[in-house]
Amino acid sequence: MNWSMEKLEKLKALLSYAKGNSNFYHKQLSNFNPEELDQDIFTRIPILYKEDIIGKEETLLTISRRNNLTTEYTSGSTGSPLKCYKGISEVLRKTKDLWTFRKENARVNPKDLYAMFYAFTENDLKTDKIQLVDNALYLSMLNMSHDNLNDYYEALKEYKPKWLLGVPSALYIFSNHIIKNNYNINELSIKYVEANGEMLFDYQKKAIQRAFGPILYNHYGCREFWCLGMSCHEGNMHILNERFYYEVVNVDEKGIGELVVTDLSNKTWPLIRYHIGDLVHKELMNCSCGNESPIIKITGGRSQDYLKIEDWTANPILFHYVVIKMNRLYPDSVRQFKIIQAAEKVLLMELVPGKNYSRMIKQKLKEEIKERLPNQTEFKVIERDFIPNKFGKFKYFETYKRKENNGDGSKKSAISNYS
Ligand SMILES: [Zn+2]
């Protein structure tokens, strides 16, 4: 798709501002003159990979805009999260963009009570099974076994949130629980279900819609940019063409490539040609729903196998939670980790120690994790110099192949008992 004049002007302004005000882009764009920018020149600007800016996030900030910053971290599946900055104007604009979609899709508004599957609260690292904070009812993913799922259903009945938010894998497990137990969904007040944070697969979509009805919408986004797209009632993912410039690079013969995004409006912490890496179909298409912004088809992205030990089920984010907690208490203690479920009750943690790692920290880490696992689970920590990245994208949790899984090793295998 060729650039409009408007897009060209926005990108010129962004590049010029970033180059003039951010130390990082002063260097990164030293060979580029924003005034001479065109579509071809733009593709020669180096792609920005997360690994390149971890640890020097601050150098991307523009000098004049350092007050009142909002900071948050990516989940950091390598163990090192990226610190993301936004100014007040970005937060307001991005919040408005997201709520415009939600209002259009389901007439929910920011004051409505909602329920959310969560791992831990960002500020105080709390992991209560169920907690009500302001207008959010938090339901833990750290244990999604039968009894807990019943308690979540009861909580939805009692508190009557208007909508439900969660990663597809958690929504899928909960939906199957509803279907299996023949619960009457009319007892709840859920008018809208939003999936985010992982790739939404068709089998998940079907189960969630079977449980809740045709009220499921897919929110595509990340911590770096927040909302990058939202599905419509036709099920197509609309992008925010005015806010971002979307590119697809390394396209294969089927037209599928990796997503690279430039934020046209974040001048506080510019991200220019930032590699998201999710696999998308190259051509931006139009939709029949009435929304004129183009749609993208995401064909591969973040997905999640669940940790299952006999009847016990949990989102493996629980390991992240403990590693994040350790790194907050003892900075640079764990740099990277990977969990391998070697047998039903045997878990191995491969771990790349940071400079403050010690026997005491290892012991604490093991205790924290064992406390959250079923009794009699064997849990071992093995220190490594590095953890090889076999599949291009780092996968931090591997289950062993159970015999009942037909040996196809599909993504569904870890939760096959639910389908
Ligand atoms: Zn549409």
UniProtKB/TrEMBL annotation:
Top-level division of the source organism's lineage: Bacteria
Q: Any idea which UniProt keywords this protein has?
A: Ligase
User: Does the record's keyword annotation contain Amino-acid biosynthesis?
Assistant: no
Q: Which GO terms describe its molecular function?
A: ligase activity
Q: Which residues form a coiled coil?
A: none
In terms of PANTHER family, this protein maps to: CAPSULAR POLYSACCHARIDE BIOSYNTHESIS PROTEIN
Q: What is this protein called?
A: Phenylacetate--CoA ligase family protein
